[in-house]
Design brief:
- It contains nine helices and no strands.
- With about 170 residues, the chain is mostly helical.
Length: about 170
């Protein structure tokens, strides 16, 4: 077990504790909000981009980024508030303890998903600018299993990310 494993374990424990404190419904809504927000922003951000293009005189790349962010936030916030309302209803039906235990599990899953995306970015950037020794990734027990979580959920996004972050050596071969 190396430092990468320790960091992964700490983050996953934090995810479980936070999830247990918030409950299943809010955690599930948060997880759905992340996935639906990314998916929705990829497929529907053109509405916000068109609106921004007509409303502001920014550079096109900033308009695209802002349109993506606005669409993501709109979808995520809507789903999150629906989760809050459902949590209140669950509290009225005396499902509090079950909601908390299952919330811990979902919190762990959500943090594992986010951590998976972060680990993929770190590994991708590390190919071009080495800031973590390659041996640290190979000797880590948890790095590869946690890194594989996001590709199960968001394969099209990850494929595009990998294509955009090929090293010069990979491009020339």
């Amino acid at each position: 077990m190396n430092i990468i494993d320790v960091i992964i374990v700490v983050v996953l424990i934090l995810g479980f504790v936070r999830g247990a404190m918030r409950g299943l419904i809010v955690e599930l809504a948060s997880l759905v909000a992340i996935v639906a927000g990314i998916y929705g922003a990829i497929h529907f951000s053109y509405f916000a981009i068109d609106f921004l293009a007509k409303s502001v005189s920014w550079d096109e790349k900033y308009i695209q980024l802002a349109g993506f962010a606005i669409t993501f936030l709109f979808i995520a916030v809507c789903i999150f508030f629906i989760g809050k309302v459902l949590t209140e209803l669950a509290g009225l039906m005396a499902l509090g303890m079950v909601n908390r235990i299952l919330g811990g599990v979902f919190g762990l899953i959500k943090f594992a998903f986010v951590l998976s995306v972060i680990l993929m970015f770190i590994e991708g950037f590390n190919k071009n600018i080495t800031f973590i020794q390659e041996g640290k990734f190979k000797t880590s027990i948890l790095f590869q299993p946690v890194k594989r979580i996001a590709p199960l959920i968001l394969p099209p996004i990850l494929k595009e990310f990998e294509e955009n972050n090929k090293t010069e050596q990979e491009l020339n071969s």
